[in-house]
Design brief:
Elements: H1 7-16, E1 20-24, E2 33-37, E3 44-48, E4 57-61, H2 80-87, E5 89-90
Antiparallel strand pairs: 1-2, 2-3, 3-4, 4-5
């Protein structure tokens, strides 16, 4: 999904669709997070448009806080590294 859209375009599109936006300061590596929440499902998208290190990315969370993979599933049996690899989506635009 992040291949054909910029972080700012994703934020704008989700806001226009009715998602609620909040911004949190981030850590040194991840930078600030723009968090958009779907009011009807509780699903959240955390967008790190300007990470301190690396490429801009986003992550999706279910209403319970579990990070989702590209199939929309929480990979419960994954190791910490596998979870990270499966749930970080990088912007290429």
């Amino acid at each position: 999904m992040g291949k054909n859209i910029s972080p700012n375009e994703m934020i704008s599109n989700l806001e226009k669709s009715g998602w609620k936006k909040t911004v949190e300061p981030g850590g040194k590596k991840s930078g600030p997070a723009t968090i958009l929440t779907d009011p009807s499902t509780g699903t959240k998208v955390r967008i790190h448009a300007e990470p301190g290190e690396g490429t801009p990315y986003f992550r999706a969370q279910n209403k319970g806080g579990g990070y989702l993979d590209n199939n929309g599933v929480f990979p419960s049996n994954a190791t910490k590294q596998e979870l990270r690899d499966a749930t970080h989506f990088y912007f290429e635009k």
